[in-house]
Specification:
286 residues; 14 helices; 77% helix
Length: 286
């Protein structure tokens, strides 16, 4: 296997793992607020990454603070939106970062190839076929679009800064910052309410297993793998790979949860897969 394909396959695996987070988040936010879900998952992830964080250099802590703040805002805004809209609608709105990454990059002076622009538009169209189901909620939709914007900025900054650091150090400092900021946000959000006192009673076994998956696997493990792979993958290409997330989410629901996969959803998934392959395909040279 060519070494240049390993980072791309790594990001595909990251996206596969993330595909299972939407139903887990939907279950968790039935009892917990978006801030609570995010803070608890990041605390679990920080415990896993603490040994590397303690050995990280000062420069990794500085970049980790900026990257961690963007991810924290993105995750909290997405979890808030999931309290009021379906996971399919959330997946579609979140996927808009596929278009935002090259557009923001263009505003920052980056050169774009026509292939990337066409592939990004195709990916968003395909996800729209899969996920658009109505059920609008202005506040939740706005929060989810804000989440997509923050994540687009994160993808751009990560591609530019990942090569400066050892992957474990950068991932560990991000996660510790996310846990600290998330805990402070949760405390501030709970002021004047009994949410902290009732937190334990709202954590059942299903939610605890879900938080373990979100914190240990989907956050600690995947942020490390993401930091390692994006040192070798451009931001716009990474965003296109992340467009596979709702495709994997739909496949998980179809295979393991026996949820239906309509012809429209299947067509949309095929369009997304084609967009990702199209972005990678290079015509043979004479």
């Amino acid at each position: 296997m060519a070494s240049s394909s390993i980072p791309v396959l790594s990001l595909l695996f990251v996206t596969l793992v993330w595909g299972a987070t939407f139903p887990v988040l939907k279950i968790a936010t039935a009892q917990l607020s978006g801030v609570e879900v995010s803070a608890l998952r990041f605390m679990l992830a920080a415990l896993c990454m603490l040994p590397w964080a303690l050995r990280a250099p000062r420069r990794a802590w500085i970049d980790g603070a900026l990257l961690g703040a963007l991810v924290l805002f993105s995750y909290v805004a997405q979890a808030y939106g999931l309290q009021f809209i379906s996971s399919n609608r959330s997946a579609f709105l979140t996927s808009l970062n596929v278009l935002m990454v090259p557009l923001i990059g263009m505003l920052l002076g980056n050169m774009l190839s026509w292939r990337v622009v066409v592939a990004a538009a195709l990916a968003c169209f395909g996800i729209g076929l899969m996920s658009w189901d109505g059920g609008a909620n202005l506040a939740a939709d706005a929060a989810t679009v804000a989440s997509a914007t923050a994540y687009a900025l994160y993808v751009i900054l990560l591609s530019g800064r990942a090569a400066r650091h050892e992957a474990r150090s950068l991932a560990a400092t991000q996660i510790v910052w996310m846990a600290l900021l998330g805990a402070l946000w949760m405390l501030a959000d709970a002021q004047g309410t009994d949410r902290l006192q009732t937190l334990g009673s709202r954590l059942n076994a299903e939610i605890l297993w879900g938080l373990a998956y979100l914190g240990i696997v989907a956050t600690a493990g995947m942020l490390f793998l993401q930091a390692r792979a994006q040192a070798h993958v451009s931001a716009d290409k990474a965003a296109l790979i992340y467009a596979m997330e709702p495709v994997f989410a739909a496949l998980f629901a179809w295979v393991w949860l026996s949820e239906g996969l309509s012809p429209r959803s299947a067509l949309g998934a095929g369009v997304v897969v084609f967009a990702v392959v199209f972005s990678e395909w290079q015509p043979a040279k004479r």
